[in-house]
Design a protein that fits this description.
Number of strands of chain B: 13
Structural class of chain A: mainly alpha
Strand content of chain A: under 5%
Bound molecules: adenosine-5'-triphosphate, magnesium ion
Number of helices of chain B: 11
Number of helices of chain A: 14
Order of helices and strands of chain B: EHEEHEHEHHHEHEHEEHEEEHEH
Number of strands of chain A: 0
Strand content of chain B: 25-35%
Oligomer: heterodimer
Structural class of chain B: alpha/beta
Number of domains of chain A: 1
Order of helices and strands of chain A: HHHHHHHHHHHHHH
Radius of gyration of chain A: 19 Å
Shape of chain A: globular
Helix content of chain B: 25-40%
């Protein structure tokens, strides 16, 4: 565990200096990526400006929902989701071989090697938007502390998707498009659940715990829902554990490339 | 000395999707895909003593790299057992790889955009090498391989040979017990090859490192390997010392004859690769372990008059080619 953090820190600083070799490109993409991140929160504000917005949800709550999920997603993007591209790329070229030579759990090492510094801009923007939403809601210190703690759930959720995508690409080599599935999930999760039919809502609390990554903490804090909903967060952890097991298993089928 | 590597009945087959040519076939393959199995390694067994240098030879596609990948824990064997330094490479990979180093000539372990020296620091963290120790090892390797200046340049700007030396350092920083080298000298000039060979011998002598290397360069084998394992079509066809291989080479002669009358029939046991240059001249290979030179000449002079006779020793390379073909 300690080694993972040491490597993560090392990789982060290496990655920054690597990207600084092409300064303009780095700053430009940092900038565009962080700007793009404001679009959905802006859209929410606009929606509430011209209509009643989502039934039962105040503008602060809706804004918190989208920014909070984005925050979890961005943290996952910087530290974990890079494994998607990296496995697709390395499996294709057969260079994954050299990564398997590291004396660590391979998934942990893959994550180390996949730091994506470009997306740090996203973290800043979504943290700022989350802060603004909390200001609108007049959140207490305790509420903020709970939300910070709960952030582990969306992070784990998006990381789970990345692990699944990575495992698929080890098995089927060229399966880039799986990433679109990741995007779709995050998109679906950013709507207050009330817009979905009842059956879908149930599904999102259970098997496909989309509600757990954003809707649940807001319902708990601001709509005094039952704490039983926290169980859907547990589903996220179970799915994550299963995806790690599956990932490990795919290595048996890894065929490398000739050479 | 003890066996550090033991391989028994090792096999590996790959499932390969059959792809036929053309768009129509590509669309068909979405619905039903045919698979074939490619058996890359078949029932290979050998063991290797600690501290030795072993050359793994074989023609393209023989299964050398696949064998190395199984020995390094990258691929899981289809059947058979491997034990390296007391570990099962695939199932105990995490602990095992600490003790090995590997260099795949075609696959870089360095960062393209950064100087090699940065990648070396990754190795320090990865293998928990104490800083002072790391620095002294690193600088020693850099000096021995003569890349003092190159390690500070982005890898992208290095020549193939310079990069390969850096890859070599990367694979050896943690002082592994066993080092696997898959075509380490591919594309290198004579000087770079020499530096790398010198270093391999130095590491073997100083640290007792075991080296297993695949190569198509007979010079590598000549300078380094004490033992040679030849693989063809996934099976071991020769496994003995280099001197045995040389001995075999000594036993085989290249013979060229010029005769006064038309050449008699040359077809007989021990004579192979017959090439008639003219009705009076031919070259051939003579295996003196089957037919002695004395006996061969006697037979020839009984049937014709020799004008010229040239006998030379076959090279190790020729012997290996012969082995590949048989
Ligand atoms: N990932 C793979 N999937 C399918 N077949 C493979 C794969 N890797 C290797 N092969 C096949 O297995 C056989 C052995 O390949 P391998 O790479 O071990 O050969 P090699 O002895 O290293 O040859 P070379 O000298 O050309 O590097 C080849 O016929 C190759 O086509
Ligand atoms: Mg090979």
């Amino acid at each position: 565990m300690k080694k993972w953090f040491v490597l993560e820190r090392f990789m982060f600083s290496r990655e920054v200096s690597r990207r600084l070799a092409y300064k303009f490109d780095f700053f430009f993409s940092l900038f565009t990526i962080s700007i793009l991140q404001i679009i959905i929160p802006l859209y929410v504000l606009l929606l509430y400006g011209v209509s009643d917005g989502f039934p039962g949800w105040s503008v602060g709550q809706a804004l918190l929902l989208v920014s909070y999920i984005s925050l979890g997603e961005s943290i996952s993007a910087v530290f974990f989701q890079g494994i998607i591209w990296n496995t697709v790329d390395n499996v294709k070229k057969g260079t994954m071989d050299t990564w398997l030579l590291a004396p660590m759990h391979p998934l942990a090492y893959f994550i180390n090697r996949s730091v994506d510094v470009e997306d740090t801009g996203k973290i800043v923007t979504s943290a700022a938007m989350t802060g603004y939403a909390l200001f609108l809601l007049e959140a207490t210190i305790l509420e903020i502390a709970f939300l910070l703690l709960y952030l582990i759930v969306p992070i784990v959720f998006f990381t789970t998707l990345a692990i699944l995508a990575s495992a698929t690409s080890i098995l089927f080599i060229d399966s880039y498009r799986i990433y679109e599935f990741v995007n779709l999930t995050s998109f679906l999760s950013k709507y207050p659940l009330s817009i979905y039919p009842a059956l879908v809502q149930t599904l999102f609390f259970t098997l496909v715990p989309l509600a757990a990554i954003g809707v649940v903490p807001i319902l708990l804090l601001y709509q005094s829902a039952s704490w039983i909903l926290l169980a859907s967060a547990l589903v996220v952890f179970v799915l994550c554990a299963l995806s790690i097991l599956w990932w490990n298993n795919t290595l048996k089928n890894y065929g490398s490339a000739g050479g | 000395m003890v066996d550090i590597i033991r391989v028994q009945n090792l096999s590996k087959s790959f499932r390969v999707a059959k792809r036929k040519e053309g768009l129509k076939e590509a669309i068909k393959s979405i619905f039903s895909r045919e698979y074939t199995t490619k058996q890359a390694v078949k029932d290979v067994s050998f063991s290797i003593k600690e501290g030795s240098i072993v050359g793994l030879l074989g023609p393209n596609g023989a299964g050398k790299s696949t064998t190395i990948k199984m020995l390094t824990g990258i691929l899981s064997p289809s059947s058979g057992t491997v034990s390296c330094a007391g570990f099962n490479p695939f199932t105990q990979r995490k602990e095992y790889v600490r003790h090995i180093g590997a260099l795949f000539g075609q696959k870089s372990q360095l960062w393209w955009d950064l100087p090699a020296i940065d990648a070396f620091t990754l190795a320090q963290h990865l293998y928990d090498i104490p800083r002072a120790e790391f620095l002294s090892r690193r600088d020693d390797l850099i000096k021995r391989l003569r890349v003092e200046e190159e390690v500070y340049r982005p890898v992208r700007n290095l020549s193939l040979g310079e990069r390969m030396k850096c890859e070599f350092i990367m694979a050896l920083l943690h002082r592994p017990k066993i080092v696997f080298l898959d075509e380490p000298t591919i594309g290198l000039d004579v000087f770079a090859k020499e530096h790398i060979r010198e270093f391999i011998l130095y590491a073997q002598k100083t640290f007792g490192t075991t080296f297993i290397l695949t190569t198509h360069d007979m010079d590598d084998i000549d300078h380094l390997a004490q033992r040679v394992i030849i693989i063809n079509h996934g099976t071991v066809i020769f496994d003995d010392s280099l001197s045995a291989l040389r001995g075999q080479a000594n036993m085989v002669k290249n013979v060229r004859l010029v005769t006064q009358t038309r050449l008699p029939s040359l077809r007989q046991k021990g004579v192979s690769s017959i090439a008639r240059i003219s009705p009076y001249e031919a070259s051939m290979r003579l295996d003196t372990s089957i037919l002695s030179l004395q006996e061969f000449i006697t037979r020839m002079t009984q049937e014709t008059v020799l004008i010229d006779l040239e006998v030379s020793r076959a090279s190790v390379e020729e012997i290996i080619k012969q082995l590949y073909l048989s």
